[in-house]
Amino acid sequence: MRNYGIPEKTVSLVRKMIKWTDKISNESPWERTRQIPAGDEIGRRRWRWIGHTLRKPCGSITKNVLDWNPQGKRSRGRPRGTWRRVRDNDVKDSGHTWNHVQRMAQGRERWRGFVDGLYPAPG
Hints:
Residues 65-102 are annotated as: Disordered. The protein is an all-alpha fold and 123 residues long. It has two domains: 1-35, no CATH class; 38-118, no CATH class. 58% of the residues lie in helices and 0% in strands. The protein has seven helices and no strands. The chain has helices spanning 8-17, 27-33, 38-54, 61-67, 83-94, 98-104, 108-118. Helix 3 packs antiparallel against helix 7. The longest helix is centred in the middle third of the chain and has 17 residues, at 38-54.
């Protein structure tokens, strides 16, 4: 059985705590093991990577990717989720502007506090 990167000790503890006859919510195992959901972990890592990238020098390719807008005719249907669209949605959800986020990322401690505010630690 796969454990998807979850430590074996944690998996065995959850198995001991939950019986097959129990009806539990999706959040209950996360609370019992004091782990954060995968979506929150992905978002936290994405924000940390954005802060790391924004502190790079101006000529950095990875820094340019954050502002890159693909050109050309797109195919029919729903637009693909580009880095820029995901970034814009994340910035809008945080309640800040992209320029403010760029300035905030220059200070590591301030950035760390910003990311921790968006995705608080469990427990």
